[in-house]
Amino acid sequence: MREKLIFASVLDGYARRKDRSVSLRFHTQELTSADIMDIDAMCDSYGYLYFRPGEKANREEMKELDQVEMPDLSSPKSQSKRLRSVLYLLHKQEGGDMTFQDYYVQKTERIINHYKEMLDE
C-alpha cells in the first residue's frame, strides 16, 4: 500500500454538514485496480488534502509538502469534546439530582477559576 495518494482530479462539488465540516467530492480519470485498492485501504483514515487547480503537479512543491509537520489527528475529538465526554461519564457515575448541563457548568467553572487564580494580576 502507498503512503499517499496523488491523482489528477476535478473538484466536483461539496456539501456542508451540520457539524460545520464540509464533504468534498472529487472525480479522477480512469484508475487501475491497484489505485482503487490503495484508496479503499485508506478509507476512514485521517490525513491532509492539498488541491491546486490548473497546472501540472510540481515535484518540488510535493517534496516540500511531504516535509511539513502536521498536528496529530489520531483522535477525531477536540480537547473540549474529550473533556465534555469525560465530565458526562463522571456525571453518570456520580448520579445525583443535577442535570448534566448544570453539572457541566459547575465543573468547568471550577476548572476556569483554578487557572484564573494562577494568573498574575
Task: Please give the structural blueprint.
Elements (H helix, E strand, L loop, with lengths): L8 E8 L5 E7 L4 H10 L16 H9 L11 H16 L5 H18 L4
Antiparallel strand pairs: 1-2
Helix pairs in contact: 3-4
Please characterize this protein's 3D structure.
With 121 residues, the protein is α+β, with helices and mostly antiparallel strands. The chain has two domains: 9-67, no CATH class; 79-117, no CATH class. Helices cover 44% and strands 12% of the residues. It contains four helices and two strands. The chain has helices spanning 33-42, 59-67, 79-94, 100-117; strands at residues 9-16, 22-28. A two-stranded antiparallel sheet has the order 1-2. Strand 1 (9-16) and strand 2 (22-28) form a beta hairpin. Helix 3 packs across helix 4. The model has no long low-confidence stretch (mean pLDDT 87).
Explain briefly what this protein structure is.
The protein has four helices and two strands. By secondary structure, the chain is of the alpha+beta class.
Main sheet makeup: 2 strands, antiparallel
Summed over residues and divided by their number, the pLDDT gives a mean of 87
Number of helices: 4
Strand order of the largest sheet: 1-2
Structural class call reads alpha+beta
Extended strand count: 2
Secondary-structure element order, N to C: EEHHHH
Strand content: 5-15%
Helix content: 40-55%
Rounded to the nearest angstrom, the distance between the terminal CA atoms is 56 Å
Shape: elongated
- Rg, Cα atoms, Å: 22 Å
Poorly predicted runs are none
Count of distinct structural domains: 2
